[in-house]
Amino acid sequence: MKPSSRRRAEITGILSVKTFSGFASGKVHIVGLPESVFATLIPMIDDLAELKATLHVLWRLSQQRGKVRCVSYQDLASDEVLLSGLGERPVETLRSALQRAVERGSLLRAESPDDAGRRALYFANSPRGRAAVESVAQGEELHPVESAERPNIFSLYEQNIGLLTPLITDELREAEDVYPADWIEQAFREAVSLNKRSWRYIRAILERWRTEGKDDESPGRSGAAERRRYLEWKYGRE
């Protein structure tokens, strides 16, 4: 007996499943997401397109710098990576998926004026995102969003210290809101140069810069050993 057309389609679908070659070895970029994304949000999402769109937006936001982090609908609708996983009508599916995400409360939507009229912007439903949406509602102009070409604080931690824990993740997220990105990156470099690979030590550097001022004209230019002695004196030993 020959298999029915539907059965043949199912078999073909199984045989044509796209496969993943695995995570690359060596240093990789790490995306920091709140624990509640995996513990609370993902289990309640019952639509695959909504799940893909939500995670994609959160990933895009994690790659940005600055207090205001958002992604426009136009950027999402032209993202080939995102659209490639949304079926035969990707743009229509994307629009529906974003609407579901907003209704669920994982994403926030606001309209901001631009040269072409008004554009839809999407934010994470976080304190920062809610404050930005409120600013848009009051007619305030949003500051431009900067792409994160340098590693974010989570990547720096993973690459230089070790695996993230929920407690460390919360502390890193708070530090990212308080300190400039270049301060954070430089503090990691200072700690690594002294072989003080701990967040406690890096946080002490940042706190000292905030209270006493950051002086890039530090002594120790004559050599690495002298600079090391200066840094150990300035930041103390663990």
Question: Care to describe what's here?
Answer:
There is one protein chain. By secondary structure, this protein is mostly helical. It folds into 2 domains: about 35-145, Arc Repressor Mutant, subunit A, CATH 1.10.10; about 155-235, Arc Repressor Mutant, subunit A. The protein has 12 helices and 5 strands. β3 and β4 (about 115-125) form a beta hairpin. The longest helix is centred in the first third of the chain and has 15 residues, at about 50-60. The N and C termini lie far apart (about 75 Å).
Write the layout of secondary structure elements.
Blueprint: H1 5-15, H2 35-44, H3 48-62, E1 64-65, E2 71-72, H4 73-77, H5 80-83, H6 90-104, E3 107-114, E4 117-124, H7 127-137, E5 146-147, H8 153-160, H9 166-178, H10 181-193, H11 199-212, H12 224-235
Antiparallel strand pairs: 1-5, 2-4, 3-4
Please sum up the structure shown.
This protein is mainly alpha-helical and about 240 residues long.
Notable traits:
mainly alpha, 238 residues, 2 domains, Arc Repressor Mutant, subunit A, two-stranded antiparallel ribbon, globular, 3-stranded antiparallel sheet, 55% helix
**How many strands?**
5
Q: What name does CATH use for the topology of the largest domain?
A: Arc Repressor Mutant, subunit A
Structural class: mainly alpha
Architecture per CATH nomenclature, i.e. the level-2 architecture of the largest domain: Orthogonal Bundle
Overall pLDDT metric: 80
CATH homology superfamily name of the largest domain: Winged helix-like DNA-binding domain superfamily/Winged helix DNA-binding domain
Question: What is the ordering of alpha helices and beta strands?
Answer: HHHEEHHHEEHEHHHHH
Through-space gap between termini: 76 Å
Radius of gyration, rounded?
Answer: 23 Å
Instruction: Name the overall outline.
Output: globular
Q: Flag low-confidence runs.
A: 217-227
Give, in spatial order, the strands making up the sheet with the most strands.
Answer: 2-4-3
Q: What fraction, in percent, of the residue positions are helical?
A: 55-70%
The share of residues in extended strands comes to 5-15%
What count of helical segments does DSSP give?
12
**Structurally, how many domains make up the residues?**
2
